[in-house]
Amino acid sequence: MIVVLAAITGASGLLLAGVNEGTKDQRKKQLLEYVKGPAVAEVLMGSENQPLDDVRELERKSAKEGEGTVVDIFPAYKNGELWAVAFEMAGKGYGGEIGVIVGIDIAAERLLGIGITTHKETPGLGARIREKGFRKGFEGLAMSGEAKVKGDGGEVDAVSGATISSRGVCEAVTLAFDFYRENKEKILASVAEQGS
Amino acid sequence: MEGSLVQEFKKGLWEEIPPFRLVLGLCPVLAVTKAADTGLGMGIAATFVLVFSNVIVSLLRNVIPNKVRIACYIVVIATFVVVTELVMQAYTYPLYEALGIFIPLIVVNCIILGRAEAFAGKNPVLLSAADGLGIGLGFTLSLTLLGSLREVFGEGTLFGHPVMGASFEPFTFMVQAPGAFVCLGILLGLMNIVETIRTR
Fold first, then answer.
1. Min distance A131 CA to chain B CA atoms (Å)
2. CA dihedral B192, B195, B197, B200 (to 10 degrees)
3. Nearest CA to CA, how far is A36 from chain B (Å)?
4. What is the ipTM of this complex?
């Protein structure tokens, strides 16, 4: 009985691992097209290039978590010059990780805006972090500080009834600030030239 | 043998067509038939899982100990559901988004476990495959029909194309939850009438 159960679960494990591996790239592509794409486009509105096509990969080294993972950097150009970059960071929400696309104005060192990509927050409550009203609170935040909700002494209005989700987004944004400050030269060097 | 193959296949299309004759798996039926395309997508996903789980369960029917058969069936079904989920995520992302939680929920869809328990666990591979395909196609047909009806009356479109003309005022009730129950009930009633006339 145990042998049969073990064999069946083992075989299905192998099959799933295979399928997971086989569809990985394609799934990443779809995620980029349908989820990250619109978020990046919104955050980097007004750029002359297609940030999705000019994506660069940068290894994440000095951050506290996620060492060795690759971050996709989406550059935006205006009048042929680098104007802004966007990339994705994740924070812990109520129902798991919240993926946040962060757009940064390079000259002003301020946040252009954020977009929510993947999340598992409660529909109608935590999921309201996707709404424009909440995301607007992040626009123009200075890169020097941290993103915090008002209850924690920051400037961002939390979604009422969804403090944990709001904090998760703040965490992701703060992580993005840290990442940008620590890797500024590398990021800028990787996207200095338009086109790939 | 050949006759019974066709018979097993055909019974899924009328005699035991889910969810009308085999009133099982109503949760996805009610939830995803807001439009014809989501109904069709859900039907195809369920058919895929049903056929493969039926084949595997049938292949293993003499190996699986009776005491843990349900656990084994669930593992087999869950495996194919995750495969479906990954493939949909990779190739038909908008559909995957539209179906959402109902794809993983195929695991506990009574139709699939019901076929494994009632049919595939006792019959040879080919027959089980025919049974799975028949029931699956029946399920797909029903979901598409239900989805089409609700979409046509609720949105005035069919597979996203307008069909009712500009003056048509959408009957939004149909795309909401009560519309699903009403539609399903009416279709069930119609089928019962047809069945009574046929057998008289």
1. 18
2. -120
3. 13
4. 0.76
- Which residues in chain B are closer than 8 Å to A12, comparing Cβ atoms? 75-76, 78-79
Using a CB-CB cut-off of 8 Å, the residues of chain B touching A30 are 89-91, 93
- Average confidence (pLDDT) per 10 residues, chain A, 196 residues: 90 93 88 82 78 74 60 81 85 89 86 87 85 87 81 84 90 88 80 63
CA distance A101 to A120: 16
Q: Would you say B98 and B38 are in contact if contact means Cβ atoms under 8 Å apart?
A: yes
Choose among A96, A97, A100: nearest CA to A173. Answer: A100
List chain B domain ranges.
Answer: 2-18+34-199
Tokens 């400037």 belong to residue: A155
Distances (CA, A) of A141 to A62, A105, A108: 23, 10, 10
**Of the candidates A8, A16, A34, which has its C-beta nearest B93's C-beta?**
A34
Structure tokens of B18?
């889910």
Q: Which amino acid is at A60?
A: R
**CB nearest B89 (choices: A1, A5, A27):** A27
Indicate whether this model's pTM tops 0.80: no
